Amino acid sequence: MSKKNLFRIVLLVVIILVAGFAGYRWASMEDDEVSREPVMEPTAVIVDEVRAIAQLSVLTCYKDMVVSREKKVPGILFDSKCRITVVYPCRMNLGVDLSELRNEDVQMDASTGRITVQLPPVRMLNKDGKVVDELARKSISDGDTKVWTPVDMKSMRDEAERRFLDQCKREGVYTKARQKVIDTVGRMLQSIGYQNITILSPED
Predict the structure, then answer these.
(1) 3-class SS at 127?
(2) pTM beyond cutoff 0.85
(3) DSSP sequence for 16-45
């Protein structure tokens, strides 16, 4: 065998060995990628879709709260008592402000396709921030209503609001609103093609 042919054979063997080693390294890297833990990455597209809903109101509570007060009224010969009863219509819209959703609140598991959404907390969404409709209140008094000062009326209004909010919490309306929000956002994500979804909403 000539030196020229021997050189060609040696060169061919070297090329085959190098190619085989490179292929092994490439396959090994692929295996590493497959075995690596799934990376949770924010999905900006989903964040934009959910944010577009803005304020999502899902439940409205209405109640008439009755507050009564009695006051002693000094007289020339003797004191008298004046009693007043006021009915305050109260209303509260519950929901979430989805414009508060952050990129890190939406995560996607690339290996399973599961989307996890952490929603903002449920809260009151009354546009004017008021619970009591003072313009619609009704009052009954057995004496001169002038004895009731603005301070007295504010105290009664505050009592009506406090009792209304306490009663709503006792009746579990926040829990009901939270579940309605979860269901609504879930249906919205399903409508745009996502099926494997976990939606979380913080407790009160």
Answers:
(1) coil
(2) no
(3) HHHHHHHHHHHHHHHHHHHHSPPPEEE-HH
